[in-house]
Amino acid sequence: MTDYLDLNRANWDDRAVAHTASPDYQVSRFADDPQFLSEVVRFDQPRLGDVAGLRGVHLQCHIGTDTLSLARLGATMTGLDFSGASLASARSLAASAGAAVDFVESDVYSARSALTGEFDLVYTGIGALCWLPDIKRWARTVASLLAPGGRLFVREGHPVLWSLDYERTDGLLSITEPYFETTEPQVYDEASTYVATEHVFTHTVTHEWNHGIGEIVTAVLEAGLVLTGLEEHQSVPWNAITGRMQHIGDGEYQLTDRPARLPHSYTLQATRPAV
Fold first, then answer.
1. How far is CA 193 from the centre of its chain?
2. Is residue 47 within 8 Å of 269, Cβ to Cβ?
């Protein structure tokens, strides 16, 4: 099998350029408005609660808009990502906003050796877990990063959403991709991305994996964490099914026809026991 890290890293290096320039990421707003937060973190805020004073790490932080937003809420943040191009944009973003955010280049599974100390908050955002082949290894990594009493916070696209046939035009929701984790990846070749851009991509092939909700919860529990919340949502922060979703405000999209049929995304929270 082609090394998925090299393949996917090249794709995300390519995306970093497009995403930084895209109006959808609103990069310029962070420098212009010291109170501005990403739409993703604004959605998360009621569930995150007060993060002021917490030492946090954002795994798979990409260009850092959510990482910076968490720092603006008072957390001392570190962002970790395997894409050097993404981190270059993230560091530029933080500098333009005058924020003291550290960024570390590493793949997720190497995070424990790449980072120093333990964290009160491990944050993982939308579109992250599908790039990882082994959800149990991810959960063990998260557990190794958390301080006693520390919290994992994940908002992610729902595995049912990831498993749909996006090419259908008859209005039906059809599951054609794996819902459960598989040994071999799903291989995609797509010359576009999820934001508005005119960028021409040169690295278009990716290797991805789905993970069922039960697999994710089990992995978290087996890693020694205590599940404290699992909430499914009827919206997702990107236009996941082109032509079949409507923007409902605050960067969230929802299936236009009978959205209650589909779990769009979910929030999972868990803690490391204090003793």
1. 15
2. yes
- Three-state DSSP class for residue 198: coil
Bridge partners (DSSP) listed for residue 267: 155, 231
Task: Quick: pLDDT tens for 128-176.
Answer: 999 999 999 999 999 999 999 999 999 999 999 999 998 888 889 999 9
pLDDT 10s digits, 216-230: 999 999 999 999 999
Beta carbons within 8 Å of 24's beta carbon, 6+ residues apart = 195, 196
| C-alpha to C-alpha distance for 14 and 37, rounded to whole angstroms | 25
Other Cβ atoms less than 10 A from the Cβ of 10: the count is: 17
Q: Residue 143: helix, strand or coil by DSSP?
A: helix
Q: Are β-strands 102-105 and 76-81 bridged in parallel, bridged antiparallel, or unpaired?
A: parallel
CA distance 217 to 205: 29
How much is the pTM? 0.94
The residue whose two tokens read 């959808």 is 24
CB atoms within 10 A of CB 49: 11
Alpha carbons 65 and 79: distance in angstroms, whole number: 10
- Neighbouring C-beta atoms of residue 12, cutoff 10 Å: 21
Q: Strands 102-105, 186-189: parallel, antiparallel or unpaired by DSSP? A: unpaired
Question: For residues 144 and 153, what is the distance between their CA atoms, to the nearest angstrom?
Answer: 15
Q: Which domains does the chain have, with CATH numbers?
A: 4-271 (3.40.50.150)
3-class DSSP state of 63: coil
